[in-house]
Amino acid sequence: MTPAGNGRLVISLTVFVLLAVLVWRTMEPGRFQQLTWLLIGFFAFRTLLTWLRSR
Question: Is the N end or the C end of the chain the one with fewer CB atoms within 10 Å?
């Protein structure tokens, strides 16, 4: 699994999806849930950009 490989990308995006599902199932709807989703989306976007730059 190289840093530019697809394996790490798939694992990291899967972890982000699992975190988003956990937030959806455990947090009450409101500002904190939306903020958490925004942060998870930001980190997923950064992960994709880093992966694209390393290719």
Answer: C
d(CA 29, CA 7): 33
Dump pLDDT digits (tens) for 21-55.
Answer: 999 999 999 999 999 999 999 999 999 999 899 88
Whole-prediction pTM:
0.85
CB 3 within 8 A of CB 54: yes
Distance CA 40, CA 52 (A): 18
45 located within any domain: yes
Residue 21, domain member (yes or no): no
Tally of domains in the chain: 1
